[in-house]
Design the sequence.
């Protein structure tokens, strides 16, 4: 049933893909974005068709701007929140831990408070406010997975090694405690924490892309080399205990990740708290990604091998059994080549990112 969904960080990479899908599914969408790393151009692209334009509402505000968020929740009678807005670079979080905790944990505290304030204002007349909450978490909550030769299931112990990972784990705990309180008080509420693996690729209709500034992720960097924007890929370590010595990750297409959000949003029932890994369960090494990218682009991609990047695990691959069984989710883009091809197509059309 169409509903009103708030998407925080809706002009960023993953958030924008979520907005596109929600609009396609007929929902109303309220975007909260402070435009720190999001792109204003995305709004125009998402609102290109007249019907979507009527159902998309943008509030230029930080998620920690409680008054602005509360007003938006009330005005648009929001019933579901998808919370993407966060800082998400491991290295940066080591440089600026306080900034990461303030943004990620502080942002969620203000958002939950705004939801509560709106709920109190609403309860006497009209709908009961936000009842479903989907949170962007990360496999970084598992911490150092170097010793793990098996895929990571949700029960894996949680011991994040970076301020980024710790801030996300704190958010999970905070959300869980708040959900328990709401449930105990008889409020209709349920939440899900989705632990993302390595999200990549772009919308296959060719509208939305991945434009991070700065860019640190493997696939976009490889494609920047292929397109001549960078001289070479710096491979961080070739001495891992993996078959080719390079680190293994679980790459998942952004549209499949978004599909997991939609499925869990529809499945959640009052009082539930669910946790799912979202990955394909297939690992690919840096060398394998490179090989696939060479095939897709037909370009030589120069590499330079350097030492390991601090904090990188040898291997991080999801065990996605739980989400596959409980939500009947399965990747529609399981092939690395197709994931890369979607990113390459967008990059060729937008050589300097959004605005080009
Ligand atoms: N990587 C690399 N060179 C780069 C960027 C990444 O060798 O310029 C490697 C990185 O060490 C890791 C994998 O590629 O093994 C994926 O890194 P990314 O930053 O994309 O995601 P992460 O797994 O750190 O979240």
Sequence:
């Amino acid at each position: 049933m169409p509903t009103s969904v708030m998407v925080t960080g809706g002009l960023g990479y993953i958030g924008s893909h979520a907005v596109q899908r929600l609009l396609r599914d007929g929902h109303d969408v309220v975007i909260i974005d402070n435009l720190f790393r999001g792109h204003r151009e995305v709004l125009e692209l998402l609102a290109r068709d007249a019907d979507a334009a009527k159902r998309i509402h943008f509030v230029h505000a930080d998620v920690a701007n409680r008054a602005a968020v509360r007003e938006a929740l009330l005005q648009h009678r929001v019933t579901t929140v998808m919370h993407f807005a966060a800082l998400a670079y491991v290295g940066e979080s080591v440089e600026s831990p306080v900034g990461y905790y303030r943004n990620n944990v502080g942002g969620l505290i203000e958002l939950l408070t705004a939801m509560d304030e709106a709920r109190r204002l609403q309860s006497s007349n009209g709908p009961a406010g936000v009842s479903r909450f989907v949170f962007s978490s990360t496999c970084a909550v598992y911490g150092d997975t170097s010793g793990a030769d098996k895929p990571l299931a949700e029960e894996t112990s949680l011991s994040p090694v970076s301020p980024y990972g710790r801030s996300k784990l704190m958010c999970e705990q905070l959300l869980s405690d708040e959900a328990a309180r709401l449930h105990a008080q008889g409020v209709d509420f349920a939440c899900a924490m989705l632990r993302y693996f390595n999200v990549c690729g772009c919308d296959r209709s060719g509208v939305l892309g991945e434009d991070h500034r700065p860019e640190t992720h493997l696939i976009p960097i490889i494609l920047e080399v292929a397109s001549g924007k960078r001289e070479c890929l710096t491979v961080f370590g070739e001495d891992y205990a993996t078959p080719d010595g390079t680190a293994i990750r679980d790459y998942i297409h952004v549209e499949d990740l978004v599909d997991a959000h939609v499925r869990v949003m529809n499945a959640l029932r009052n009082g539930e708290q669910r946790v799912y890994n979202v990955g394909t369960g297939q690992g690919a090494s840096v060398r394998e990604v490179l090989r696939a990218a060479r095939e897709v682009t037909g370009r030589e991609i120069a590499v330079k091998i350097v030492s390991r990047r601090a904090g990188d695990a040898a291997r991080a691959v999801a065990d996605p059994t739980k989400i596959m069984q409980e939500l009947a989710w399965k990747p529609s883009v399981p092939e690395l080549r197709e994931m890369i091809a979607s990113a390459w197509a967008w990059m060729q059309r937008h050589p300097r990112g959004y605005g080009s």
